[in-house]
Amino acid sequence: MKRTSILILVFICQTLCAQSKGDYYWIFSNNSTSDPGFEAYFFDFNSSDTLVPLTSIVPIKTRGLNASICDANGNLLMYSNGCTVVDKNHQIMPNGRHLNNGDYFEMLGDSCFNGYLGKQDIMILPDPGYEQGYYILHKPIMPPENPMYRELRYSYVDIALNNDRGEVLEKNIVISDSLKLMSRYLTAINHSNGVDFWILQPIDQGNQYLTLLLTENGFESKIIQEVGPNFHWNASGSGTSVFSPDGKLYAFYNKDDNLFLYDFDRNTGVLSNLRQLVLKTNTPNAGYFSSVEFSPNSRFAYVAVLDSLWQVDTWEADLKDGLELIDVWDGTMDPFATTFTVMALAPNCKIYMASGSGTNTYHVINKPNEKGKACDFVQRGIQLPYTSSLGNMPNFPRFRVDEEDKCDPTITSVFGKDVFYRRDLKAYPNPMHDFLTVEIPENRSGRLFLFDLNGQLVWQGVGQRSETKQIDFSFLEAGVYSLEFIPDKNPGSLLWTKQIVKQ
User: Fold this and answer.
1) Cα–Cα distance between 437 and 463 in angstroms, integer?
2) Which of 57, 136, 340, 437 is deepest in the core (most CB within 10 A)?
3) Domain span at residue 354?
4) Is 186 in contact with 176 (CB distance < 8 Å)?
5) How far apart are CA 448 and CA 463, in angstroms?
6) For 388-397, how does the pLDDT look when each residue is reduced to its tens digit (9 = 90+)?
7) Nearest to 280 by CA among 325, 313, 322
8) What local confidence, expressed as pLDDT, does residue 269 receive?
């Protein structure tokens, strides 16, 4: 009996350790040029929070769905775009094609290598009963004439097969019994036992949530909860849901229902104690996408609503007392609208945000545990090696729920020459006619560069520390330009920029 208990404890410890760095590898891929092969880039949070570029290595494009999983040490095991499963060596797994098959998949044809459309409709979970097993949860469109409805399926991977590179053993197994599930909103978290997983997914009917428990025996305890108000008819596909890092709260947000904040019981899987908050009311019926994410300390919920970012202090009894507008989109096109859409909390304690279309940057909340604007939100704060594809973040379950540290702020940047953290440069008047005044950041000396919309350098100069510099730009043609300041000594790889309009 004593030996059995020890074995159980060892198994639980192995499972928990395997989960602790499961989200340490984020991969993105695109193809914005006519050259062969996909342009890809990734975060590997084991070594730094630097975006690393890849070319002609990744065999798929993550145009929509994006999921990956790592082993106990944060080493990549596999990733998927909702159509194809790829192994750690960037090779398509045996039996790894045709996820989400069906009428809509057939409509996509070969273009499904570009990825299945959607933003929170795939996730990879460790098998609680087998250390080398993984469930891929994925949600195909059903029926194809109504893309707002989805069904929940799973595919199963054994990583021990194919020379430890993995093989898909089961595929497209339906587990939702033809329920009309909402597009997006798929999220999961550990059971209080630290081994099993709760999976939560809203149903596009009334006020129902589908709750599943994944155990060593597969999917058990299928519960349909009726809690809170009825969902808005336009809720499907327009928002996201997420558990807090400590596992005590569940947030659901879209621009029509606004914010639903529930208490969550990790022992029973039950939602309770609904609190609601209306952030915006002047939104159109379509094309207005949004997301919600928590700070690492679980106190603050951040809501991105296309053109605005809000912070909600969940410690306030009345959520209205804890609501603060953090920033408003400045209208920059790079090359398309750099709006606020999909957020994800990273292992380095920062929140990254992608826009709803292809851009050359991500937004970043550098200090999400801080109240109000001290959270240090920077629009376009991360320069990408390549243009993003439609804009998305990988969808992970909550890892490290029972660990004291939900993330690691000591993960630091080791930047390549093309990757910087951006700050706002003070320059005025804007729009300008002939002269522009630029305030060089305090205690920094470096060079100023002015680029046109085609990325061509049209002017450069020197900026001394704390200098207020007046520049004659009378020679410029009317148009929009990007002004950049890069310090000579720059261990933090900071980049100050300002979009300038010449009249």
Assistant:
1) 12
2) 340
3) 2-383
4) no
5) 6
6) 877 789 999 9
7) 325
8) 96
